[in-house]
Amino acid sequence: MNEPFYVTTPIYYVNDVPHLGHAYTTLLADVLARYARLQGRETFFLTGSDEHGQKVQEAAARRGVSPQTHADETVVRFKEAWQGLHIAYDDFIRTTEPRHVRVVETVLQRLWEQGDIYLGQYEGWYCVPDERFWTEKDLLNGACPDCGRPVERIAEPNYFFRMSAYQEWLVEYIQQHPTFIRPDSRRNQVLGFLRQPLGDLCISRPASRLSWGIPLPFDASYITYVWFDALLNYITAAGYLTDAPRFNRLWPRALHLVGKDILITHAVYWPTMLQAAGLPQPRAIFAHGWWIAGGAKMSKSLGNVVRPLALAEVYGVDAFRYFLMRDMVLGRDADFSEENLARRYQADLAHDLGNLLHRVTSMTERYFEGRVPRPGELEARDRELQERTLALIPQVFDQVDCLALNEALAAVMDLVGGVNGYLEQSAPWRQAKAGRLDRVATSLYTAAEALRLAAILLSPVMPERMAELWQRLGWQPPAALQDGLTWGLLPPGALVTIGDPLFPSQDNHTLSSFRFGQRV
Fold first, then answer.
1. Which run of H or E residues covers position 201?
2. CATH topology of domain 339-484
């Protein structure tokens, strides 16, 4: 598959502290981007920060600094967190950047000139923490339906986007493009939402009340609503207004990864905005589930939020990445506990993968003075493992393309278990005693080569540890890693290294010790 791959995360509020929810979406995008690169596809991975709005303005005022200074100082938390989690994004967009401001102004002006924006009277309930307006029927027990916090009654003139004019079009588009919103449960949720009349979207705030944002190009006494501003980041980074060939190449292949709590903004607001602006739709919007702790969505108010770097420091970044990708079925909620992480670490990584590397390198040291042996003629058992390994490569890519990451990783780890079983059946130690070093050489080379290829398939999830594994096997990966997905590239005579365990055993820890990134 040579189609470009463009994957995005939501852009995160600059005031937030990175937590597991942020980390999961961003890690998922990173892993998918790495698999796309492994297929040799042109790949673009975007994340970033949402830096306008009332919350930022109020936080800056409390600190006695400008909103821009506040954003400059706080955005570092996300960049440092993503670096610590081995996240290799291609672009980190900030909504305060001039390139983005220009796009927002251009789209607003276009919609204004064609009559899709009008001045009207807004009266309703406003949630300051979420920066969202709600109708009376939306409220739950008089509070914000999303965060449960108090709302304010606001009545004021504002500008509106004629979103209702695009309701019929959107329903038809979703029905005609069944993979546009995924999984199916979220697609059905959006269609259910659209069975009710779709109101117009308030897209401004009076500058007298909120000054921190992008002024409307046709009325500077108003500031652009933060959601209308933020959603446009996806086309800004793809090259809209700056690089037409790149934009035309990347944008129609865009995959938006979002949490299910922001599905409507991405699957209703965003498509109608694009349609009104005369722009193509992204390829797909995928809403993943939540990580649940103690039976509830992770929330600072509930005290069950986990800071990702805390557990990564204990188990290793790559092991943490593996757990998150392996244990969530995309589209469903998943239970998070350190006990589950520790169990997955011990079974899959320390016992199966790490033990296999140790067996291969230690027997190579024992029987061939630490040099990769030259294989002899393959027997049926050897050919079977070789064929199974090579057949796994397209299978994994297909599963990843279908966003069945947990299944792809399960298949690779099943192969790792199969290589361990192959060594048990081949029994190189017995062959050595019988003086059949040709069979010992073939068995160890076959096992090592299967392990090398399995490690390539695992490298998008565990890039650092798999690079260490290749080094211990004596293999130097090519500049284009996909060129390594061929059998027989492990060079005979290369020096192997036993070293310390790739995934050392861990002492037991308690999850409560790492909530909010502090040991208590």
1. strand 201-202
2. Isoleucyl-tRNA Synthetase; Domain 1 (1.10.730)
